Structures are given as C-alpha cells and as structure tokens.
DNA sequence: CGTCTATTTGAATGTACTCAAAAGCGGTGG
DNA sequence: CCACCGCTTTTGAGTACATTCAAATAGACG
C-alpha cells in the first residue's frame, strides 16, 4: 500500500506505540486499502467477517437485525476509529452484525490471515491492539451502565454531548436506534427539550 | 507465590498459550495471592484500581452505585474468570465501579506496576490478555444488544440458561439488578413463568 | 422462637411503544 | 421554478411493559 494512504493509520498507531521505519513499511505492505460507497456493506450478518477495519474517512453503522426485522444499532464508526464484527473475526464464525457505510468510506483493512503474522513480527502492534480493545471494552461497559441508570432523555443528552460530530452526520432515526428507543419517542424527547428552554 | 496455588491460573492460561517452565516460574514470582471474606471490597468506586484479578474460587459482583443510591450490577465473576475495574486500572484514574465479594473468594492479583513487565518479558502473555479482553468486549456488545432487543422476561430466561451456576449462588434481587429490572418485577416474571407451565 | 433479610403480591403510576396520520424536506423532472 | 415523490420527522391517542410504594409472606440464621 502507498505510504501516503496509510498515513492516517500510522498517525493513529503513533499515539499508542512507536514503530521504526522498517516496521511501518512492513505493516503497510501487509494491509489493504479500500473505498466503499454509501449504502455498501462491509460485513453482513451470517457471513464470516475476515477483516478488522480502520476508518480513514467516512462513517459506518454496526447493527443487528432481529427476527421482527428491527434494526438495533450497536455503534457508529468515523475517522480514526475501527469497524468490524470482532466476535465473528476472532472466532471465524458467522457474524451477528452488519456493518454498512452511511457515507462514502475509506478503510484500511487487516485480514485474519495477516494479523497474526503482524502480531508476531511486530509485538508492539499486539500491545497497541490490546490497548485499543481494552478501551473499547471499557466504553462498552460504561454504555451498558448508562442504559440501565439513565432515562432515554438523559441518554440522548449524553450522546449529543459526547458525539456531536456523529449526531450531525446521521439521520435521527438511527440515533434513536443507537439509544435503544423508537424514532417517535426520540422526536418527542427533542420537542420536550426545546420547550424546556 | 507457591506453584500449587497458582495452578488454576496456569491451567487457564494454558488454554490460550503455552508457557515454558521458566516463564511459568517468572509469572508466579510476580503475582500475588490473596483471600477475601464475604462482603469485602476488592475495588471501591472513587479509588484507583491497582489490580486485575483472576478468580481462583468464590464469587464477586461488579457494580455501580448511582446518585440515588441505586446499585447497578455490571457483572458477576466466578472461578476461572476475571474481576477488576479495567477502566480505572488502565488509566490509573478513580474507579467507576465497586467490586465486592459475594462469597469467600481467592484471587490471583496482577498489579499495574508488574503487568507491563510481564508483557515485556513474556510477549505471549500479552497475546493471552489480548484474546481474553477481545472475548470480554464481544460479550459486552452482545449483552447490550440483548438489553435492547429482548424483553425483561427473555433476558431473564437467557441469563438462567447461560449462567445457571451463577443464578444458584446469588440472591434474586442481584439477578434483577444485573438484568436491569427491579426485584419486584423479576419476582412477577418468575411467578408468571411458573403459571405458564 | 424471634429477628433480619429476601421474596411475593397488589394497586396506582410512569415511561416508552404502537399505530396511524400529517407535516417537513430534499432531490428530480417537467 | 414549481410539482411531485420518497423518505424522515412530528404529533396524537391508546396501550403495554416495567416501576414505585406499601404490605404481607417466606426463609435463613443465631
């Protein structure tokens, strides 16, 4: 892969560990760069997920479609974050989640076949990925707690405050799905907040 | 630490990676073994959490106390699992969670000061911990989804089915807290399930 | 056997959902 | 430039799931 295209990833990794010139080149030689259009799927429920993807630009949603055809959004991923069905990736079993692009999206993709080799060749990279997943786990647990201890309104306010960039980029009904409420109810919450001012 | 006491940990680690005699000895020399009584706290909300703990025997609950004094249980940990406030541990900032023993509990403790050294000396151990945290993250995401897409009743049935050992060991009001419902409502769900038979 | 804690039961209430319909909004074509 | 189409958001009425509070019952332990 061309160094220029990999730069956002290298900058990101540099926040966790520092790689030598050679290590950077080795890393870049192993990963794949790809563009997706709005609406395209990176992972589909039922398929085995073969990649962990770093988002260079764009935006994706990770969601689960339940038996009633209802969509439940687990996360959004924008620039400098990751997207995948990690459960499917690490076990190489069918994915529970879909990952779909909400915008034109550029990704750097780490394939299952390559990642073990990368960890072995560059142990620092394993440290980096451990740290990233640790942080992701912590956020996931905190989110679980928010869902238990906060009302829908407070969850929305938290989201708005924490991810203002994301809110502006996605339709409201997806925010509702992420918060675990219906689009109608989110609409009511918003109008209530306006009246309170 | 005496090898005998560390055996449950070594057996557990052996499922992920294989350590040489020397590595095992090095590991055991760095970790701490400790017993807690029922009711004692391993971590308290507000303190910095200095350990990641492997549960040799016993049972703990990890919970968050909200501003109304309401307890929200994030997880239970029993034999062969881990307990800590990882968020606090990795950032060395005050803990959001409490970890309390529900039974007499034996732990093997990895201190913050030691763990980096262990990762560096035994890179395989970093792999092991990465894999463990990956799995924990995946379960956390799946649980989030269950909380959105299942009713309280179905969440209870899932829990009962998935963690029968845990259900038998802890009072019902804690199960309710873990499921994110009140103790009264769980009681009603149970009586409803009995009537359905 | 009494005390303390955990569980159950019931009535009233509240938060969030469903369904249906209307209004808003952005793009496309005539 | 306006009219229409599809999609998103809003609004309202009725409903369901889960909570609160209070009181009764059951269980565990000394």
Detail the topology: elements first, then pairings:
2 copies of one chain form a homodimer.
Chain A: H1 3-14, H2 21-30, E1 32-36, E2 41-43, E3 51-57, E4 59-65, E5 71-78, E6 82-83, H3 86-91, E7 98-101, E8 105-111, H4 112-121, H5 123-149, H6 152-162, H7 164-169, H8 172-179, H9 183-196
Antiparallel strand pairs in A: 1-8, 2-7, 3-6, 3-8, 4-5, 4-7
Helix pairs in contact in A: 4-5, 8-9
The first copy, chain A, binds a DNA duplex (30 and 30 nucleotides) through residues 151-152, 171-173, 181-188, 190-191.
What overall form of chain A do the CA principal axes indicate? elongated
Pick out the low-confidence regions of chain A.
none
CATH topology of the domain at 3-124 in chain A: Jelly Rolls
What is the CATH first-level class name of the domain at 3-124 in chain A?
Answer: Mainly Beta
Oligomeric description of these chains: homodimer
How many strand units of chain A? 8
CATH architecture assignment name of the domain at 3-124 in chain A = Sandwich
The separation of the N and C termini of chain A measures 52 Å
Q: Sketch the major β-sheet of chain A.
A: 4 strands, antiparallel
Average pLDDT, all residues of chain A: 95
Q: N-to-C SSE series of chain A?
A: HHEEEEEEHEEHHHHHH
Gyration radius of chain A, rounded: 18 Å
Largest interface: A-B, 32 and 32 residues
| Lateral strand order in the biggest sheet of chain A | 1-8-3-6
Question: CATH H-level name of the domain at 3-124 in chain A... which superfamily?
Answer: Jelly Rolls
